Fold each of these.
Amino acid sequence: MAKYSTDFDWTRDQFHLPEGVIYLDGNSLGPLPIATPARVARAIEPEWRDMLIGGWVKAGWHLAPERLGDRIAAMIGAEAGHVMVGDTLSIKIYQALAAAIALRPERRVILSDNGNFPSDLYMAQGLAKTLGNGTRLVTVAPEEVADHITDEVAVLMLTEVDYRTGRRHDMKTLTAKAHKHGALTLWDLAHSFGAVPVDLSDCGADFAAGCTYKYINAGPGAPAFIYVAPEHAGHSQTALQGWQGHAAPFAFEQEYHPANAVTRMRVGTPPVLQLAALEAALDVWDRVDFNDLRARSIELTERFIAGVEARCPQLRLASPRDPHARGSQVSFHFEEGYAAMQALIAHGVIGDFRAPDIMRFGFTPLYIGEREVDGAVEILTEIMAGDLWDRPEYKVKAIIT
Ligand SMILES: *Cc1c(COP(=O)(O)O)cnc(C)c1O
């Protein structure tokens, strides 16, 4: 009997992967699914070409954010009708945070950790400034978060899986502790969705947001999503009162009246071509079991760590050693990590670098297997053993790392 119910040979065949490249950066930008070009082309021709503005109804463009939101909901243990697709993750974080804060008007603290992604922290700082009522962002070390959840905290805002190290918070335990102190939770699923099983209802999460261009493979600039738990959906405010979140957008009223539930989290016109790409990407996920995905991811990350530690003594593991305490990426510290990553990329292994000294590798079982893991270890060993990274052209910093 096959070890997994998910056919990982089939999933691999659903992607275009350039010849001669080992792609360990699907945690930053997933590769192109085979079905995507035709699906996007269809949204252009015949939909846009022949239907013109009628496409909003006839081609289902207008309701695509809800429709795809429901598909995402089913993948993250959320109730149907409580996930909305649109905008970017930064914007969805801002909206969710503003909604959560408004539900705890007597409190002034947003608690996060100092490893959180900068955009999340910047959004919180900006919102605090806009509120101008003494609301402030407090960040502590990731392992100290639980100890800082007090009755002062309005919102606990965390990214489940740390973008640098892959360290994973315990969503369920932290959410329970936040609730015990009367605080609400906002979970960023950027490095969780498509990487580890997520069950928002089981965790009791209040708000969540995530993106679709990383593990989900919906393409550069693909939209984000937001989740609002059923108990907040009917009375959560949206800081961004766009016309598409209005109860009657085509009544063009002067006054804002929010639409029901999560629909009010829509802002403006949705990106139809990107939604077509997201739809094609989600089709692949219909045939993936998240427990299989997780088991496979652990096999691959364990194999990579063992290989690198045996053969590249210069590199020091930055990710948790316990696979259950990390997501689907593995990071190593190396002082010349930037140059080493440039050398790796020049030799066909694509990972990325995160300041100050982190070499980051994403493991995406849909299209990465043992062969790629072993190939990457082999090339990394050659680069480290021969100091092949020590060349001026690998040390020139690009604008995107
Ligand atoms: C990737 C990522 C983002 C990016 O936000 P965008 O608005 O989509 O650019 C935000 N937060 C986290 C935690 C991320 O990993």
Amino acid sequence: MTSHLDALGNDRVRRFLAEGQSDGPVLVVDSEVVRANYAKFAHALPDTRVFYAVKANPDPKILKLLAELGSCFDCASVAEIDMALATGASADRISFGNTIKKERDVAAAYARGVRLFAVDCREEVEKIERAAPGAKVFCRILADGAGAEWPLSRKFGCAPEMAADVLEHAHVRGLIAYGVSFHVGSQQNNVGAWDAALASAAEIFRECERRGLALSMVNLGGGFPTRYLRDVPAVEAYGASIFEALRAHFGNRIPETIIEPGRGMVGDAGWIEAEVVLVSKKSDAEDEIRWVYLDIGKFGGLAETMDEAIRYPIRTAHDGGATAPCVLAGPTCDSADVLYEKTPYPLPVSLSIGDKVLIEACGAYTTTYAAVAFNGFLPLASHVI
Ligand SMILES: *Cc1c(COP(=O)(O)O)cnc(C)c1O
């Protein structure tokens, strides 16, 4: 079936889809967009090292490209560490950024040469001491996720007041107390969101200094947004705001910094082509809302529609014509597999069964969130071009 979305996507993605014979939903990632995003981060934060958050999209081609561009990697597991190493990047370009690690995984990372680990409590420090002696650790602190469309819970990080104790504990145990990290919440629309966390970080640096510990690094985390339906500030605005906050809180003793962009690196590089499986109504009443069922839903890769948090732009070949609100749902026999219902999604009234749609900004947090065979549906197919 040919795609009827000729005016949509970018040229490269359009051409790829036009040639394709895919029978199911497919993600196409344009590596040129990833390349441009990396350049934007490098330009906006010139003194900051980039550790790409592998979990956002671990496709080997994306990792290889980023490695060639000079990126380092923030990994959440030994499997992700192996994916990063497979690019040819050396282990000193890898951070084991998950604060919740099995001790044997710490040992496995150490055996592979990884020497940089996240912690947020004394118990985790002791695992690192035993399994990765002498390694560098940074302490993650809780940050207020206000302004983020995909806020993070209290699962990761300790109260800022506890961080100096955790870092001192690391020092006493023969580890290198290296710095502080935080994450201001994913899809963070407020360019000023880093300020409060940097104030806390600077206070931890001072407290550690009083205890005779010289910290080196602040890990600014991820949170840089992708454009979905609404415009987001440019990466340059984030860079300027972060630099201003660093100057305000650290004066002329600005520490080494790293960022861990995930969504901001790959989100807008990916398009999912999907198909309308069914358009129907639940009654014959005049004002009854249409239900539109796609061949992709929450279990096929669009998990971030949970609580309708992320609203993807959806393009159709009927765009420009009259629209009406729809409930948008996925194809599985699970009643949770509804994408947008509380806030119905406007789609063209002429949209019909068999039409293809193009879902934009799907490069991050889609393939890895797709179930392996829930209801017998294959995991989301993915191509990096
Ligand atoms: C997920 C994650 C990131 C990436 O976050 P984005 O909002 O996608 O940029 C960065 N750092 C850590 C520790 C993470 O867990």
Amino acid sequence: MLQNDKKKIKNVKYAECIRCGRRYEAETELGLCKCGGTLEIQYDYEKMKKEIPREKIEHSSDYSMWRYREMLPVAQGVTVQNMMVGGTPLYRCRMLGEQIGISELYLKDEGRNPTASLKDRASAVGISKARENKKKVVCCASTGNAAASLAGNAAADQLRCVIFVPANISQAKLAQLLIFGAIVFRVDGNYEEAFLLSEQVIERYGWYSRNAGINPFLIEGKKTVAYEICEQLGWQSPDYVAVSVGDGCTIAGIWKGFLDLYELNWIEKLPRLISVQASGCCPVHRSIKEGMVSKAALEGTLADSIAVERPRNREKAVRAMIQSKGLMAEVSDEEILEAMKMMGHSSGVFAEMAGAAALAGVRKLCREGRIEKGKKVVVVVTGNGLKDCSSALKATGQPMEIKPEIQCFDKIAKTLDLC
Ligand SMILES: *Cc1c(COP(=O)(O)O)cnc(C)c1O
Ligand SMILES: [Zn+2]
């Protein structure tokens, strides 16, 4: 343990392995535990209870995620970059709720982040930690959004950024990377192979790793979405929070956020998580059901952001699900596309496949009667639909064709029910 006078990260005690319990100083760069387990940042809640009254946060004029800076593991004195990450809206959606049978349904629109996905919350912390550790280059492998967010946040802070992406990355996500000036390698292989290559490169060249399954600081950024949800609901947790799962960092991060607030007595109860995976790729659910690492063949899914064969944060995700008595849903690509269309039509929020998956999962659980009536449910829309328009157009079909003549319009007008 460090001496107190050397302690630079306020309120953090240490990092602890979730598998073997071994502890590490949190003041250094951290990866996996010696045993291979994932580390978790532990806070001094007793101290925080005294020093951070809830009102102090409420009165903050910072509406980004850095409003919760004292609850984040960034050393004092490090200037955090000033992009507007976080502070996304929580919409009460009456129509959508009625359609799927939930009396209080909310959408947390994470597509409103600077690079249009929830990943910005982790990247913002990653960039600050890279600065703290005096790194000049940040690096990751990604199915798209983690990379786009790292590239954007790095550009805003003038750090160099190197990215490895799998061959199936969407055009929009690729364009984001290149526009933000990242050095991009398209790996001739899948995400798993891109990931392994990136870790070797990071180790060899001493760059800063933004691979969230490995770097324990990153999910601390993701937890801020839970803080916001609670604050937006008047410091209450919802009954359920639905989130789509790939590597498992997002769901684990969200759970950590609720746990923090519960430990601080800022909320009275914890929500239950709803983990949603694509039926063509659901290894985290298999682990929960079968209690082991299953090697079954995967058919894949159009939901690229959650098409993860070997989840890098499986243990944390499984633990979060067990602790929260979570529900699981697996949804087909057709069900995701339907939910995407429904969400757009009834709420004006455009989700990418992985974002719409969470709603599809809630809808499925409602149909099966597994979510009781009268519950308060938050669906985290993790990414914006503009990131992958070709999938969206599969849901909608093409527009009507018309000649530029009013008579042609008149003929159709009668059928439109708009007169
Ligand atoms: C990354 C991502 C997820 C899943 O997060 P994991 O940490 O990989 O489980 C879900 N939706 C979107 C849009 C994402 O980018
Ligand atoms: Zn360990």
Amino acid sequence: MDDKLMLMIPGPTPVPEQVLLAMAKHPIGHRSADFGKIMAEVTANLKWLHQTQNDVLILTASGTGVMEAGIINFLSPGDRVLVGSNGKFGERWAEVTDAYGLNTERITAEWGKPLDPEQFRLALEADVDKQIKAVVITHSETSTGVINDLETINRHVKAHGKALIIVDTVTSLGATNVPVDAWGLDVVASGSQKGYMIPPGLGFVAVGAKAWEAYKTAKLPRYYLDLGKYRKDAAKNTTPFTPPINLFFALQAALRMMQAEGLEAIFARHHRLLAATRAAVQAMAMPLLAADECASPAITAVMPSGVDAEQIRSVMKKRFDIVLAGGQDHLKGKIFRIGHLGFVSDRDVLTAIAALEATLQELGHEGFTSGAGVAAAAKVFASH
Ligand SMILES: *Cc1c(COP(=O)(O)O)cnc(C)c1O
């Protein structure tokens, strides 16, 4: 049915009506006083969201573009970097550091398992002559629904003293606590189509003082992604290149909504959606890919047995207009992923779970009592 599409994927995520309406205007000039006012407001609110006094810069790029900027502005060819790789995105950042000729050392974990902070501690402690220039981590690994223990890994980076911590928070920022200043995170990247509740197109990167020091001597080539340019122009409440003005209207509206809800309430909502989704999936006798201790508040990966994951997605879409994400790379066909990030409410999860039950019945999946998934989710909502 037209206009009934419901996105339960980890990006692009649903966009609230007031954000959509904010975009339905003529663009204004990005050197105008009116744009300057918007830029000032959204920059202040981005600092609030990141819990930081550091610069938070806005780029016209997807998440990958800002993460690439976050890597290349602070490093030089041949620099030794540790990159955590336990999924599609962690591996992507290792591909970026490889592409730029950095001396990349991958610290890996099986897809579906979290990175082991001990491996970072050992590598960092062994580096007595301080050759490791950066540690690159994906906080919430969207491909598997695993959240890595950034706080502990970062503690080991701080004990090393020299290395920067560069973090992909694309599906953790705005879903769970990422206190940039309290943890001393040097470079933090995120994108508009995830926790921000706005369409794709904007990327955000928070940069701290230690990273700006490294920027001065970093020798990788940079031009469009030169963060110094964005910082200089942000001081004048503008951007170095023409930004997608209408997405700034959207960002302004979305950040106001987030402020009205409050950080604690936003995090609590995501953790509640996660708990309800996991309880429901288990009640439907389908295994979860990630363990409880490392489950991402943005996304739940499910490994159905006896039913094809792609068939589930296909029925969900055709019959119920609900879009779920599939598995990536070697997990394709083996898992499906339920996004619960951004503008998602308890009702959305109840709807998706009810549709999933109907889908499983249609596909002849047995081994659970009809209604058990909805009941399990409802029980979580009743007690949170
Ligand atoms: C979505 C996502 C990105 C960015 O992907 P783009 O398609 O470039 O926006 C990066 N990291 C993670 C963990 C993501 O989920």
